[in-house]
């Protein structure tokens, strides 16, 4: 039996999982680390925390598994996207990594638009200039820390720094590089035009690979440290969402996944590049060669339900403790007693502004149609439905782009709710499935490693052999037209309030 390792470098911790060639988990270990916020809107981490966590989790899974090191055929790395790691000529880290959720770069986004132009940026990078993405962070260091910038010899993304620790190679791959805003996304290579415009040295950037290609091999010293064989291959890996797509089998046209975490993500695979010129969704290279993905993000998905729970569901919290069940389970049971449409009550889940499809930081949450007949249960149902309408908004943008979805996976905490999956199936009007494995990104990059190691001939073949469906929720024919009426009304509310949201923000 052959084995592969998947490393997932997240924001709260790094998780390493050892899988056999069939995708079964042999051993797993997570190590957490801090995030630093030196000022409001700043977010940074220490790259050494990531590398220490990777080294110690790999050692732990090897020690716990009893698997022979000769049988481990490859390593894949997934990571939080957009983080900036700067090294000097001696490979010393020059400053803490500015990570994905950092928002300090508004002036640099304006600078990028001024130098290149918004339309040209969308044409080359498939996305408008964004504060959280890497190019703006590089320009921020250039503008604000010239003494650091003067020493830069290498620029890497978080997972690519881990690759360097393992192999000594400066490399990246297309899915993660797409989030730097320096990649020519349609042509899957660095954009000389942008690098010249922003005065960024191309030699600072790693070589670009496809996600399942071999990018390097374990050094002798690192192999000895980890308890693995020198020369074990390390593949390109993928950014976290692209890795999760492979880990849920979303590697063919028509397939997509919805993640309901704090935010909501709808992610679809496409073999033809499609770019939304309005910038409502992100287009990036997929972890499958010669394919892309489109991704819509809603800000207040699971956050809306958590907000409602924390403020209005004390009874469920107390009862859940006594019964030994999850409070969200009891909330689902309450919401199930309310009909579709929540007795004519609609909820806009814009607690934190919105990204897809409105790109409006001033948008705020709304209960629309509230009357004296409504109870807490109606409001709870409206919250669940409102989040689902916002996720349907993402799918509607995909349809405008000729990216059609007929096979949807549900992931994240919200994906474990049968009621929420039922709402998704009814509003998408397609089957909504869950996948048997819950390992997501770690499994995705382990699959990429199995392709790089020659265990499987392609990503689609590997996913066909490894990914198993757990539950299938079919749309209910009687609910589909009923939800459609409410959804079409929901779509009219934001445009009617847009100007008022801006006024409210200025008070």
Question: Helix share of residues?
Answer: 40-55%
- Provide the CATH architecture of the largest domain: 2-Layer Sandwich
Report the mean per-residue pLDDT as an integer. 96
Beta strand count: 24
The CATH superfamily of the largest domain appears as ATPase, nucleotide binding domain
Alpha carbon gap, first and last residue: 65 Å
| Stretches with pLDDT under 50, minimum 5 residues | none
Number of domains: 2
The gross shape turns out to be globular
Number of helices: 19
Strand content: 15-25%
> In this structure, how is the largest beta sheet organized?
7 strands, mixed
Using only C-alpha atoms, the radius of gyration works out to: 23 Å
Give structural notes.
- The chain is an alpha/beta fold.
- The protein has 2 domains: 240 residues, Nucleotidyltransferase, domain 5; 218 residues, ATPase, nucleotide binding domain (Nucleotidyltransferase, domain 5).
- The protein is 41% helix and 21% strand.
- It has 19 helices and 24 strands.
- The strands form 7 sheets. Strands 1, 2, 3, 5, 13, 14 and 15 form a 7-stranded mixed beta sheet that branches. Strands 18-19-17-16-22-23-24 form a 7-stranded mixed beta sheet. Strands 4-7 form a two-stranded antiparallel sheet.
- A hairpin with a 3-residue loop joins strand 1 and strand 2.
- Helix 12 packs across helix 13.
């Amino acid at each position: 039996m052959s084995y592969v390792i998947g490393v997932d470098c997240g924001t709260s911790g790094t998780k390493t999982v050892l899988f056999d060639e069939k995708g079964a988990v042999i051993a797993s270990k997570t190590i957490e680390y801090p995030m630093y916020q030196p000022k409001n809107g700043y977010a940074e981490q220490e790259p050494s925390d990531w590398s220490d966590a990777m080294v110690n989790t790999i050692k732990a899974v090897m020690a716990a598994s009893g698997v022979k090191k000769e049988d481990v055929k490859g390593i894949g790395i997934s990571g939080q996207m957009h983080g900036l790691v700067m090294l000097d000529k001696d490979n010393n880290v020059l400053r803490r990594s500015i990570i994905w959720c950092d928002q300090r770069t508004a002036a640099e986004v304006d600078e990028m638009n001024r130098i290149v132009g918004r339309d040209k940026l969308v044409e080359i990078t498939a996305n408008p200039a964004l504060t959280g993405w890497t190019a703006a962070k590089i320009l921020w260091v250039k503008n604000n820390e010239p003494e650091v910038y003067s020493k830069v010899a290498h620029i890497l993304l978080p997972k690519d720094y881990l690759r360097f620790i393992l192999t000594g190679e400066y490399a990246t791959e297309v899915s993660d590089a797409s989030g730097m805003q320096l990649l020519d996304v349609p042509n899957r290579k660095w954009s000389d035009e942008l690098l010249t415009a922003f005065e960024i040295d191309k030699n600072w950037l790693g070589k670009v690979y496809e996600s399942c290609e071999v990018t390097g091999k374990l050094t002798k010293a690192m192999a000895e440290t980890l308890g693995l064989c020198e020369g074990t291959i390390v593949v390109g890996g993928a950014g976290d969402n692209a890795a999760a797509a492979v880990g849920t089998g979303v590697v063919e046209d028509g397939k997509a996944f919805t993640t309901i975490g704090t935010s909501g993500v709808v992610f679809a695979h496409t073999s033809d590049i499609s770019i939304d010129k309005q910038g409502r969704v992100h287009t990036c290279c997929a972890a499958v060669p010669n394919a892309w993905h489109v991704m819509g993000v809603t800000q207040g998905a699971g956050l809306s339900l958590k907000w409602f729970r924390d403020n209005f569901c004390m009874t469920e919290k107390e009862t859940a403790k006594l019964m030994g069940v999850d409070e969200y389970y009891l909330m689902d049971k309450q919401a199930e007693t309310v009909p579709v449409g929540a007795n004519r009550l609609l909820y806009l889940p814009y607690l934190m502004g919105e990204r897809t499809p409105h790109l409006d930081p001033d948008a705020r949450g709304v209960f629309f149609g509230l009357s004296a007949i409504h109870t807490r249960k109606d409001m709870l149902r409206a919250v669940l439905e409102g989040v689902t309408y916002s996720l349907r908004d993402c799918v509607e943008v995909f349809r405008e782009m000729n990216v059609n979805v007929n096979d949807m996976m549900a992931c994240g905490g919200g994906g474990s709710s049968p009621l929420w999956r039922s709402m998704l199936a009814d509003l998408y009007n397609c089957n909504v499935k869950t996948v048997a494995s819950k390992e997501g990104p770690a499994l995705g990059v382990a699959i990429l490693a199995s392709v790089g190691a020659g265990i499987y001939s392609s990503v689609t073949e590997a996913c066909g052999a490894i990914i198993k469906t757990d539950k299938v929720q079919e749309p209910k024919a009687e609910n589909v037209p009923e939800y459609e009426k409410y959804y079409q009304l929901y779509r009219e509310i934001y445009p009617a309030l847009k100007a008022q949201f801006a006024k409210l923000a200025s008070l």
